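[job 0417] fold request received: Pirin N-terminal domain-containing protein
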Amino acid sequence: MDSRNSAVWRRPRMSALFIQLVLAVQRSPWIHALSTMTKMAWRPLPHLPQIERRGVLSGGASLATAVATGVVQPHDAFAADETYGSTPAVSEGRKALRSVSSVDSHPVIPVWPSWAGGRVVPVSLGSAFEEPYLLLAHHKHWFDPRDPLRGPFKEVGKALGLPYVDVEGFSMHPHRGFDVLTYVLDGSDGFRHRDSLGGSRTYRGGAAQWMRTGSGVVHEEFWETRQDRRTDVELFQIWINLPASMKFDKPVVNYVGIGTDNPWLEGGGDSGDLQLDQAQPAGSFSVRDVGSTLNLAAKQAGAGVRPPVEILHARIGPGGKWKIKSPQKHSALLYVREGVASIQSELQQPSTVRALQTATFAPDGDSIVVCNSQNGGGANTLDVLLLMAEPLCEPVALGGPIVMNTEAELNDAYQQLRDGSFLDRDYAIRQQAKTSRRYSSKNAY
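[job 0417] inference complete; emitting structure tokens
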């Protein structure tokens, strides 16, 4: 019998003994330290019209644990980066293949259930070689109604006032000034979304949500849970900055991929050339053109056309080689979801990039070659996400879930959250015109 579909275990109510345990845990020194850290990392949201007031993480609600551990750079960290806000210098003696400027490992933060593989990998981006990408988070979770520990853990979290511990996801929180792509991987259960635009939807494996936060939107997102079986969810969430001229665009939400009106563009076009080991079948390679699909969906939704981004999700069988065009002045970053990638170069030895690592590319060529040098069957398939785009070359002020160009604009956004005007786009545009002379009357309206 499939254990996922067997009878649901009944959980007893929290006993007096468990209440005593909670009180004892609250008094322990390590909980006091955790509580102190939490108060520093979180701040309450001001009242939002017709939206439930909940806590929001100062570094972005969708990446709670990432920011709490200092992974996401605060807005002033970008100012300290001398390369940020300018086009990366083009290397002399350009070669055909771009070389790897760095291979980086990232924190693997345990989330529920950590003992069974639950984790989030937050990748903080934003350097000159990575912008306009701000953040990449790789989530993997599962929830089982028979789990005897989940209920008590949620009760403890609630008793201690820890945000997002007592819910399966992220309660209402605001965004402004950037695009968000939430891409649920094939075979996963769903992600439930509700927003201040009136939208509500659960989208599942092989589908993605594209959200232009623009002048401001408030939303919540929760992992799909069921009472009759376990649910498994794996997804990528990517934050992509908007140019100053588009930060007050009208908010828009659209969906792409399986089960939507915007099917994926698979392979072909600019998705690159493939060379496979003769022993490998052609079906051992696939490329999903996420970026081009998003561009079409944005046009369909009537949203302003942003500077183009290229997001390619590729699976390469053992012995396979993938060559993709990568304009010299575009940023480029490769994330390895599964397997081991070998990146070819004419200036250095091949670079090895392992699962959950990233490779950032230097601007010294016009193409990228990724190889799967492993042998064997499908278990050794290489699964990668390639992000490329033309840098915006603008200053970035990152204030948690708000991404603007200046500190003054961040202050405006948080003042509007406090006084309840955050979702009033006309008011926000008028205030922006007063705050910055960059916007002419024509741009403001």
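[job 0417] notes: The chain is about 20% helix and 35% strand. The first strand starts at residue 42 and ends at 44.
[job 0417] exit 0
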